[in-house]
Known about the structure:
Elements: H1 3-20, H2 47-68, H3 77-87, H4 97-110, H5 116-143, H6 150-165, H7 168-174, H8 180-200, H9 207-221, H10 231-238, H11 240-249, H12 252-277, H13 282-299, H14 305-319, H15 323-330, H16 343-350, H17 367-380, H18 387-394, H19 398-423, H20 425-446, H21 461-480, H22 485-510, H23 517-528, E1 534-537, H24 544-551, H25 571-587, E2 596-599, H26 606-615, H27 624-627, E3 639-641, E4 652-654, H28 671-683, E5 689-692, E6 705-707, E7 711-714, H29 725-735, H30 750-772, H31 776-786, H32 797-806, H33 810-821, H34 827-842, H35 847-857, H36 863-875, H37 878-888, H38 897-912
Parallel strand pairs: 1-2, 1-5
Antiparallel strand pairs: 3-4, 5-7, 6-7
Helix pairs in contact: 2-5, 2-6, 3-4, 3-5, 3-24, 4-5, 5-6, 5-7, 5-8, 5-21, 6-21, 8-9, 9-14, 10-20, 12-13, 17-20, 18-19, 19-20, 19-21, 20-21, 21-22, 23-24, 29-30, 30-31, 30-32, 32-33, 32-34, 34-35, 35-37, 36-37, 36-38, 37-38
Protein name: DUF2723 domain-containing protein
Pfam families: TMEM260-like
InterPro entries: GT117_domain-containing, TMEM260-like, TPR-like_helical_dom_sf
Amino acid sequence: MDAKEIRKKAQLQKAKQAQKIPPAYQKPVPRLLFEDETMRPQNIVPVKLNRWIAFGVFLVVLIVYMCTQARTMSFWDSGEYATCISILGVPHPPGNPFYILLGRAIVAIFGWAVPHGMIAAFISALFSALAVMFTYLITIQLTSMLKIKPWEAIFAGIIASFYTAFSFTFWMNAVEAEVYSGLVFFVNLIIWLTLIWVQKSRDFSHQNILLLIAYLFFLGFCVHQTALQIAPAMLFIVCYPLLRQGIKSGSFFPKLVVYSIFLLVGYFLFGVIGKQVQIDDLDKMGFALVAFIIIFIELRKVLDRRIWLLGIALVLVGLSSHIYLMVRAADRPFINEGNPSNWKMFQEYVLRKQYGNTSFVQRRGNFFKDQLNYHFLRYFGMQWLNEPFFTKPLGVTSALLKPIANIFIAFLGVAGAMLQFRKNKHSFWYFFSVILITTVVMVFVMNLSDAEVRDRDYFFVVAYNMWAIWMGIGALALVTLWKSKPVRVVLLIFMCLLPVSNLISQYRVHDRSQEFIALDYGLNFLNSVEENAIIFTNGDNDTFPLWYAQAVEDPYSKENIYHARDVYPTKESKEAIAKAMEYKNKCLKGIRKDVSVANLSLLNTSWYIRQLRDQEGILFNIPDDQLDELEPRRIEKPLVILGPPDNPSMGFTMDIPPTAEWRTNEPFYRVSDLAVMQIVKDNYGKRPIYFAVTCESYVNFNDYVRNEGMVGRIVSTPKEEQIDPERLLHNIDVVYNYRSIEDPRVYKDDNMRRLVMNYGSGFVRAANYYIDTGNYPKALEYINKAKKFVDDEIKLTEFYTNYYSKTGQWNKLDEFINRHLVTHPDGWKIYLRFIIMHLVDYYPDKIITYIKKGFLLFPEQEYFAQFAVSYAQEYKEYDVIHKLLEEVAPKLQYDISGYQSDLEMLSKQKISE
């Protein structure tokens, strides 16, 4: 055989061998990746046993969640999500499309038998229980690398999972319709799959798992966008062997510097371009693009080209549920926030442009003081101990117990980290990357402001879940620290009791099974108003419950409809209402579909104004092409509200300040203010128009609003604090539901207590009405009813001032002042606002006595001297106030000589006049 034939035979043999190797692995791959067993999780717990324990954890937690889950809607976003799941709506940006589609699919299957609100809450319970199960499995994977016994790994896993399950924020998200339960599920599933890949892979094999992870990342992104928060940590774990090789070879740190520069340049360069083309988030897109290029450069030799192509395809498939947003928005559902029906609006919707641009560089609060300490660490202290539950039995104060508990929780997590680092540094670095990304980096990226409207602990629920894993490992560290078996047994029992105590102490806090406060809140607003009414609402909690009550058939809902009075519909308004009712009757299954809810915040957007006009039957006589041009402006002339043609005398003219002075003298009126004025102008007299009592302002209509309980109706006669006593009393006594408010089983958080006080204001108005009519026993009866909703009697100061003064019980008024106002930090403000001003208006003979009393009770408050001088000037009481200032001067904690000089000067000016 000659040399030519030998070469040919060798080439044929080489070709055959190549055909036997899967194409994905034909490239030369480094062989020293995960061959070291210490770098990989091990199967130290028998597989079947591990599965049964994981399922047991899942089942126990799911049962607890089902026992405590809401039977209907809850406050904040859950009402909107439950409604969108029921009607396939489009919720607030960025839409959470997979969550809505999945929820709607489950409703389609079981909705005929189970209330939709309950199904929405159960989805959260299911996701959360699965997330807890994967918390157990992740802990098993991490501890299996520590060379410990199987029971020790199981112990750490169970403790970590139950610490997660019954932590404050995690449990809260599990019992109501929320997306954060789904977020944690996807994050935990991805972490577990990544560790499974590490366990199985030797030379970047099993790339199908990596493809699944890529898909799950972007499917989870469609539940909540922060699902991508752990992507850098997962990339670190996957590339860990390559990074170690780079450190050994000396190439890692030069690359780190160069790549960091590229990332920063990409971020700022694309940010500049984004400002030019008006795409706010282009800086983040540029950062992501540069990061992807770097990843491709580093991994192109270990991942086959087909893997990259399949990965991109799966990313697109994962994101594909966003298509539903455009399709459904074009169909204009009842809830269609942002109306992402075309590409421009879809882009603004997904990028959350409605909430403004957020930059990593421009901090919205001090990173350490506000973002890390006040938000993240304060929420951290809420997670694992409900200290009020223990203070009385232990005989200690909350101020003492809380820091001790926080130190112990921190210590337990640090002990877990130390054990992990000491036993297996690879396991430690894997998990440390996750901890770092979900805590400090997440705080930096979220960039919360120092003036958030509510607690945002749910943003960091993944971080607290991860810390619970370290706590589980820390519990194992404390148990195994002692060689004495009795001590170990005692510690083991103690560590098991900790999550149990958390379960017991927080059970009532999270038990929503008997809570109907949120549902009743929406029902009571709707049932307050007359047929075909328009009601302006302020925020989430006085809007979402109304939407839910209108859209979702709920067995706990009841309907009340008042016949409309003093309205004269025109042909145009009748046709608009009929068209709206035809639409609503097709898609809504709840109560009071005749009512049009107009949210003040959303009225700043043109898409929402169009929605109210086209689907709610609200007349809005501004041409369509001008809606997008509405912008904040001053108002230079009075607002003329014409009466209907059948009764023109109902009209009125209202003087309006040029600027929105009630909002700290803003130099302009917002688009929402202008929209409210236009809606009232076009619909007044044709439909009843109301403001919810929760509105921060009635947009200058204050004196034209007649209170009827939870709502105030716009009327043509101006008068301060006017009420419709007949309607008010019927609403608060007959129509309204107050379920759960007096039920001691139902925990009321700060938000509930604050909102429930609005019921109290209705009873206070009724009590004041009976004072004005001389029926004092009835007044006391209604003020006692008000106390069921008001958490502090000082908030009834106005009533007691009115009652005691009208009945001549000045000694009782003095007792009330001494008991409630003197020790209150804002007592002096309340004294001036409610007591002094009341006496100025109704009892001028008593005013000097109570101004003097104010000086003596609040000797440090200079405002009383300012008021005294102003009073003297207004009522020409110079001599009386001069003598009063001389009398109280020695007892005050400030110098009033300047006020005395002002008073003398004003007195001389009066004489010269």
